[in-house]
Amino acid sequence: MSAIRVDSAKPYFATSSLVIGYALCSSLLAVINKFAITKFNYPGLYLTSALGVWGLGKLGFLHHDPFTWQTAKKFLPAALVFYLAIFTNTNLLRHANVDKFIVF
Fold it and tell me: Which residues of 20-32 are buried (b: 16+ CB within 10 A; e: fewer)?
């Protein structure tokens, strides 16, 4: 009779590697954002993603749903909260160092 060996360390390795990877990406993104804010202090660049999607759609590189006010009204609260989060994080990075940003 042969015994089947179950490797119980595998789920812990997967979880810990995901946590470490997330922490590494998050901290590197904070450092990159701090560098970008100090070198390119243009808060109006938040619209570049919307303009990029529009432009790529016009050029035929991607397909997106057409803009309608009915859909925009449904997503407006989430978009405002997301914009406020980006705005506050950007201002925090502008006036504090990355260590304080990560702790906050």
Answer: eeeeeeeeeebee
User: What digits encode the pLDDT tens for the residues 46-92?
Assistant: 677 778 888 998 999 988 888 899 998 999 999 899 888 888 887 88
Residue 33 belongs to a domain? yes
Tell me the C-alpha distance between 28 and 38, whole Å: 16
Cα gap 25→12, rounded to integer Å: 20
Report yes or no on 91 lying in a domain: yes
pTM above 0.70, yes or no: no
Domain of residue 59, residue span? 9-103
Give the DSSP H or E segment for 102: helix 98-103
CA distances from 38 to 1, 41, 49, 81 (A): 67, 6, 20, 24
